[in-house]
Design brief:
By secondary structure, this protein is of the alpha+beta class. It has 2 domains: about 1-90, Arc Repressor Mutant, subunit A (Orthogonal Bundle); about 90-148, Ferric-uptake regulator, C-terminal dimerisarion domain (Dna Ligase, domain 1), CATH 3.30.1490.190. It contains 5 helices and 8 strands. A 3-stranded antiparallel sheet has the order 3-5-4. Strand 6 (about 95) and strand 7 (about 105) form a beta hairpin. Helix 2 crosses helix 3. The termini are far apart. About 20% of the residues are buried.
């Protein structure tokens, strides 16, 4: 059985019908705190506790499909092999700590005028963006200051 959803969770047309396991994964992610980022393995572990018959490849495929549909955000950080997934939220950038690998949301959206200027200057169409800042998080900075 398939479930119809849209980004707000209400009923939608047949083009957004999801298999029951994918709808389950969507609800699992929507139940997470905003600003949290999870690997496929972490999501699989929780899913397996609630639905013991779900397979790892089902979780992988489901997360990729949910991301393609714009229902969850798939985050690829520099230097990381694994994608992170988070509930869809307002536009934002990410910060990745180079010491502890913590990932956090940063309230930043590229101004529309910049996107238009880039599109015009480079003769292309921008349909999305992913911005990640890297550096040292506050906890690591405080920790290194204590050891000096």
């Amino acid at each position: 059985m398939a479930t119809s959803v849209n980004p707000t969770g209400s009923s939608a047309g047949p083009d957004t019908r999801l298999p029951k396991n994918y709808a389950f994964l969507l609800e699992l992610l929507r139940g997470r705190d905003p600003g949290t980022h999870h690997t496929t393995a972490e999501i699989f572990a929780e899913a397996r506790c609630r639905r013991p018959t779900i397979g790892y490849s089902t979780v992988q495929r489901g997360l990729r499909r949910l991301a393609r549909l714009g229902l969850v955000l798939e985050v690829h950080l520099p230097g990381s092999d694994a994608a992170l997934y988070e509930p869809m939220s307002e536009g934002h950038a990410h910060f990745a700590c180079r010491n502890c690998a913590a990932t956090m949301d940063v309230p930043y959206v590229t101004p529309e005028r910049i996107l238009k200027k880039l599109s015009s200057a480079l003769r292309l169409t921008i349909t999305g963006e992913a911005l990640t800042f890297t550096g040292v998080c506050g906890a690591c900075r405080a920790s290194s200051a204590r050891t000096l």
